[in-house]
Task: structure prediction
Amino acid sequence: MAATAVAEGETAMPRDRAFTMEVSETDHNAELEVIARSPIDQTVEYEIEIQGSSHARHRGKTSLQAGAESTLSKFKVSFADSWCARLTVREQDLAPYEVEAGTCSGGAPADA
Result:
């Protein structure tokens, strides 16, 4: 599964995919926002896993309307040296894909 990385202050969304992850990082905190903008009406499933000073996981399934923007999740994570957020998405007509932010490595979020 291919992953797209997101740098601080950037938004990642390949043109043919509905999900973005917006990131804002300050000192030892990162704020993440999962946003969906689908070009078609579809039902999607997603899971976000965040590792920093603590660990969080959120799963969701929702119906998206073509052209409508929706904020699906917001997170704030504190960290000492590093953090990782990995968003896995299953859209209707696409192979599952991932969007990563922070200092992710390998198959699981990096340890703080």
